[in-house]
Amino acid sequence: MEDKEIKEFNSQFEDEILDIAFILKEYAVGAGKVPNKEKYYQVSISAIAYKNFADNTVVENENITIQKKDDDTKYYFNTFKDKTIVRLKVRKHKDFDNALYKRFLLVELIENNYEDEDLEPILDKYVQPVYYKDEILGTFELDKGLNTFINNINWVDKKKVEVTFNNDNIENSIQILRKIFEDKKELDKKVKEYIASQLLEEANSYNEDADKKKINEKQFAKLLTFESISIKSNGIDFYVDDGDVFWGHVIIVESDFDFSFKDAYIAG
After folding, report:
1. Per-state percent for the chain, helix, strand, coil, to nearest 5
2. Model-level pTM?
């Protein structure tokens, strides 16, 4: 008998079973569940295009997902490989035509590493690297799974930091990054001093638990080193190594585009 949780999930999809081939994207497989609420994982397999064999229609869309409820995720991570074509039996979501995310329910794997003359040119184009070159900041490469451009750029004391920004607003992100790197020495100092002022009490609590001496703000700031900078749609996240104060956790400082800091907290 079908479990209630699975039955409710599957009821979102139409009964008709379709024969469709999908191009899987980078970081194709993910899974998660709500602790103490859900018994099964929701597995999501992301795709960039599909071909429906009922009429040989080919659709390209970055928001395609094939989903399944299961108590074990190992099969999906081992079976569905990034940047490949798979042929599946699926059921279409009942709100498929109106929804932003084109969702399918996985029924059965027909063929892995499927070859299709209509889909292969799309896959070939997808696997080609995409770059954005800036005369000051250098060359960024697009991580297609995250839709994010990435580069490693010299920071203070010639230490490299990873810099990322979304593919949706390139020019604005580049202007913000130029401003950051023009003032990198002052910004490096300000971010570290802000962390020290906000998290000193918590840092000394960790030190006490580890039988270490208390530190002041100046000593705390000296222990910190930049790891990465992420430009988001609503601000900037600075990721800073904690100098082992918080036992190896990263510290994130949230900032607006004028470098007014909003928060500093431990993560990871």
Report:
1. 25, 45, 30
2. 0.81
